[in-house]
Amino acid sequence: MEEQSTKPTKKHRRFWTWLTASVLFRLILIYFPQNLNLSSRPEVSTPLTSLRRLAEGYWLKQSSMSPYAGSMYHGSPLLLSLLGPLTVQRIDGLPSHLLCSLVFVAADVLNSLLIRATGQTLQIAYRQSLKSLDLDMISETMETLPSGDIAALIYLWNPFTIAACVGLSTSPIENLAVMLALYGACKRLVPLAAFGWVMATHLSLYPIILVIPIILLLGNGPDTPRQLFLLRRHAYVLLLCGVSVKQYGGLWEMFTSMYGFILTVQDLSPNIGVLWYFFAEVFDFFRNFFLIVFQMNILFMIFPLAIRLHHRPCFLAFVYITISSMLKSYPSVGDSALYLGFLGWFVYELSEMKFSFFLFCVYVGVSLLSPVMHNLWIWRGTGNANFYFATAMAYACLQIVLVVESVSGMLNHDRKLRNLSSAKLQDGKS
Amino acid sequence: MAEPETEPNASKSKRRPIVRLGIFLISHSFFFSLVLSTAAVLALLLLPVLAKNTYISENSLMPGSVAPVLSDEEVAEANRLIDDLTALNSKPVGSAIGSRRLVAQYMSNSGAEVSFHKFHPQLNQFHPLRFFSSPDSGRIEQNVSCALHGVNTVGIIRAPRGDGKEAIVLVTPLNSAKVSKNEALSLGIAYSVFSLLNRVPWLAKDVIWLVADSQFGEYAAVSAWLRDYHTPVFSGQGTINAEMCPESNNLHGIEENHFTERMTYDGFKRAGTMAAALVMKVGDRALQYEDSLSIYAEASNGQMPNLDLINTVNYLAVHRQGLRVKVDKLWSLLDMGWLETLGEMFEKLGHYARSVYPQLKFGIPAAEYIEGSATLASSLYYQALGIPTGSHGAFRDYQVDAITMEFSPKVYTLGNKRQNDFLLRSGRLIQGVVQCVNNLLEKFHQSFFLYVLTSPSKFVSVGVYMIAFALLVAPLPMVAASLFVNASNSDDSLSTEKPAHLATAADSAPSVTASESSPSVTASESSPLLSAADSGSLATRAGCITLSSWKWLFAAKKSFVVYLWGSVVSLLPYFICQIPNCSPTTSFIIWVLLSVLSLVVMYMILASPISDANDSRSQKEWAILKSVTLSAAFIGLCLMSIINFATAEIGGLLIVPMCLMAHPLKLDVKTRSLRTMLRTACNLVLGIVGFPPVTFIVLKGAFEGCGSVSVGDFWSWVEFLWVWNSATYLYIGVVHLPSWVLCIHILFHNC
Prior knowledge:
The complex is a heterodimer.
Chain A: H1 2-30, H2 33-36, H3 51-62, H4 77-88, H5 98-132, H6 136-142, H7 147-157, H8 159-166, H9 171-186, H10 190-204, H11 211-218, H12 226-245, H13 251-264, H14 275-281, H15 284-300, H16 302-308, H17 313-327, H18 333-343, H19 356-380, H20 385-429
Chain B: H1 9-14, H2 17-27, H3 29-50, E1 52-53, H4 72-90, H5 95-109, E2 113-119, E3 150-157, E4 166-174, H6 181-197, E5 206-213, H7 218-230, H8 237-244, H9 246-257, E6 264-265, E7 273-282, E8 292-296, H10 307-320, E9 324-327, H11 337-356, H12 366-385, H13 393-396, E10 401-408, H14 416-439, E11 451-455, E12 458-461, H15 462-473, H16 475-502, H17 508-516, H18 520-534, H19 539-546, H20 552-576, H21 584-605, H22 612-615, H23 621-643, H24 645-661, H25 665-670, H26 674-690, H27 692-704, H28 711-723, H29 727-747
Parallel strand pairs in B: 2-6, 4-5, 4-7, 7-10, 8-9
Antiparallel strand pairs in B: 1-12, 2-3, 3-5, 8-10, 11-12
Helix pairs in contact in B: 3-12, 3-15, 3-16, 4-5, 4-6, 4-14, 6-14, 10-14, 11-12, 12-24, 15-24, 16-18, 16-23, 17-18, 18-19, 20-21, 20-23, 20-29, 21-28, 23-24, 23-29, 24-26, 24-29
């Protein structure tokens, strides 16, 4: 017994040391912004998440203009009032935007803690369900794999997360909203879940599809009229936004320049997604049609997946986030950072996932190849857009393979558990 | 990568053809890797045969319509400049400023705008991050010593038919301290063209003539000018720069001012974006037969200018001016016996092929083959080195296509008439090229950027030479997959066998799944879990078994540590350089010691053997490690082939056999058969030769003779690489060295 009690504390300490190490690592990287130049990389900062654009929007707002004037800023007005004042404050001798970077580091740490807590909840729930199936011996092996800690550390030490955090993109804050929603739903904290979901939707629109896993998670939750509640929250956020942008243009302008910008793919500068290349090539009179097709693509997959995976809402959320970060109009590495962290939750369930090594190799390859191709195209001039787009396609294929393999791995695991319990039943009978 | 053997036959027939093909390749990986490697070497040797004739791809260049208008009049003027410059040499004092002033005088007399550009030569510094950023961001602000400064003289002709948005650059080096005869001649050529261009009506692009002060090397002068050209200084910063060296600035100002105040301008003058740049030189080498022109094109990291530029120069030089055009060759290859035999073989093969099928254009004469391979080898060598072969390299960093043209006169001492003829021909060539570039509507983009020359009029394009590389690296993922599958399969069978005799109810499992009519794949996969569930004592083992697909994580961690160490090793010289008074040999020894120390420390901290206790149980651990090594080497080589093809090709020839052959020596020695002994010997040789310093020494000994080789040479060579920001340096540190360490680790693996 003593051994068992010391083991967790040791593990706890290891987790906290790694967490501190990751924070230190980020702070070191933040100190050399010029050398890394991450904030200008297309993989890290998209038109929606770039802090440079936010600073521009804040400047416009300070000079009593609409922050959306001139098509520079496309984020939320709430971010503007949250991060805006920090962009103008400089401390002598330290890199600019230091305060913002600190906010992002804090958001990352908070994210990882939320992921850890959610993972622990999930693990407890999983163990209980195994107990109810009389499969205790499997749950014993799970002791060795604290999936919450693993997920949190994967999130913290993922190079993509670090790049997004150091590269001054606002995606850690968007991820924080998503995490708040999922954490709240897991812990059955309806207000928190509703707040997180509404904020996430408000910030980047695509998390709107997370409403299904959240409702499924809340499942038999406290007896509150959920839908109505969510709607009311949304109204609050809109009211807040309305107040903050009222004097500069009003809500409608915010809608057109935020959600319109997201939905109609106006900015065709290269990123790691696939839409920019396509919409740069497509004829103008087909543009609307293909816009609908591409954006509906995400919606098409919602219901079949929801039906198949309704018993695993968190995994469903992982699949949704992966799909939307593959098909969204301005993806960045910050989005992949989130779902790769989620992968750690299911480390036990997905332990027999195929192609894991292959996926890992391609991830490494693509993330190294992408800057090289960009360099070849933009700085050397010996390559062209196709070079960079090739890596974007490889990245998209990779995400597809990841989704397919993880879903089939999960379904196999469930099937196995079912077989196991039925075998158990037969054993008991004979 | 699906397990092929454990599954029943029923599912085998259902597999898609591509999966079956993959399994076929993986299961015969030894045979295929042998065939592919042989094919790769053969394809590399065939490249000179497969080279195509160059052709001018951009229509708007119109080299055929160029009329040689340069006449004796301009040549006479050029002769005057040459005479004046050589006369200055006899005057001992003040020739530095004198020659500059003289050139400026001539420039402004011909009607151009003249300005001087003062620069401080920046010491090239080790800056590993520069490669992935823009050229400007690598600029290091450092204390410049005020005594050291050079002055470039810049003349600009404004085009009468242009809008000043495009420009063509002519560059001639001039060592203002002492003007040599060759430099005077190259100035003469440039001046004859320049004075002509001032009068022609067709000029649509501005012409910039940069007389680069070459007392610190011409590359430094040209790159300093280009940097200032592309980074406009707005008010404020410029004055700070000037204040840093007030006295030298004044000195310079007074001396310049009192002769051509009205014509020279102290600020920086610009024309538009550069369409092309031509660096002109006159070489020392005298050739007996005819005047010749050498073209140097390699810029940093194996970048080449657009092939159309070389084509234009080659076309005009050969067909209009009757110059003999040359590209650099690796001379030591020319008299190698095996190459000659190979060339004759290919020639015979070509004859045979043509006799069978006359349309087939295959095969070239043996002599041409040898010449082609020598040129190809030198082209590959300079690209792989990643160091520009002349000051044209500085232009490539700003996406400007540039070449160096080195004219060599027939006889060394030129008589007056011969000199006139030489000036006329060279000047007409330059004038023709300028006229062609002037015709351009867009920047060069039609022709190839990625190519290797085998002669001035023959090239191998990226589509052809990539085949050789692809064949070379193709065995890596194949063998990696086969090792990975075998390792995980053997573990699976191991784990299924062990519980089989313990489990009692395991027999009932298949019947259960069969009754549920679930696919047989899941039945075979779930059997370990099923059997494990029967006895609680096996639960821990079940935990390990289910992690089988993630077993590579340990090996991946190990190789990650090694790769991290590789980047640490490549950063170490930055600190070692700062130790004062270090001879190359001692620096090299410090470097090696520090590297070994850091490897040990990192291995202790990061790859602590706590987790290894878990997986040393598996006998096949080395196989998974090897598979990870192969995959990492594959990724590294593919990346490098995009950055710099030549480095990847040469590096691949070294790494690929080393990685493919690696096998634990202990296992080989245990089974004493001929095959394993052969493999041991191969492994040892490859392991020794693969170590970068040894590779360097062996190659240097092979090409230059063994007499003058020392360990310190490697340090100097590496220093040379990083001073020029060559990606090859990063490749050696971050890809080659870790692969070598991992291979050595596999060789001495105790299993």
